Amino acid sequence: MGVAAEQEEASSLKRSLSNEAASELGDLDRILDFVLCCLAHNLTNTSSSQRVPDLNMSFPLKYGYIEVQCHLSAQEGTVDGFETLHRDGRATTFRGEEGKLVLDATAGLHFLRLRYAQYTLRVGLFTLQGTLEAKLSPVALGARVALGAPPALDARLLGLRVAREGALVVDASGLGVWNPLLPLAQRWLNERMRHCLHRVAVRHLERLVQDTLQRLTSAVNALPPLPLFGNHMARQLPGINVAQSRECLQEKQDEQSNRERKLNLNKNNSLSRFMISPYFGKPLEHKSTVPFRCHC
User: Fold this and answer.
1) pTM of structure
2) Burial 95-107 (b: 16+ CB within 10 A, else e)
3) Domains parsed from the chain with CATH numbers
4) What does the pLDDT read at residue 151?
5) CB contact set of 117 (below 8 Å; sequence gap of 6+)
6) SS3 state of residue 30
7) Structure confidence by residue, pLDDT tens digits, 172-202
8) How far apart are CA 223 and CA 220, in angstroms?
């Protein structure tokens, strides 16, 4: 992506954030949808040119009382397919270490296809070699992003994990005379490779997401601040830090405390409409939104 394109994208992101903030400052989900759309756009443009980590795993093969140790290694892995990054569930914020604001959200990945140009499978005395393709669909990824203090714009990925594993389809080729046996071994391969391939995919996406966050923050920081941001709302990563500045967050905490005291006086009221954040210690109320899907 060129410099002009990055500046144009940063300008549109900032304008969108200002419009959203003017209408509904406390809506985490809607602005997060917008940023996930931008992340998906950047990941799609960069994923095909980047390598994924090598795959190395050992596991036993049991048949009755016989057990054979197996080892699978794969190199020269790339991402051949990537589609749709969307919000999966509600986004929350909490105070992390040293009082830093942290965004906790779960994103859904429609599918991710990994391809290894060379793999080696050793089963006892037998050695198989060829190409390996794996399709993960769908996958839910849990992300935590640390947000810097205003007025500087800063967002750093703290961690990415597999919140929910999806279906796995493995296609191996180049087995020679063993190719007819591949359909019989498909289920066996999937059960043993599921967790390992999901971890490899997450390690790859961590680098891409961190790189995308750095590019977005650099592009936005290079632009002059909007009047709306002023003292009331500091510049932030569009769509990520929707809890505004510390002043706005403190106002929300005070409002929520008053609301809690009123609810405690009336035992007939239910707290089911609140999302309780185990990290923040206080319930956060979010506006209901329609699930978002973006095909960038």
Assistant:
1) 0.56
2) ebeeeebbbbbbb
3) 3-221 (3.15.10.10)
4) 53
5) 75, 76, 77, 78, 131
6) helix
7) 777 666 667 666 666 677 777 777 888 888 8
8) 5
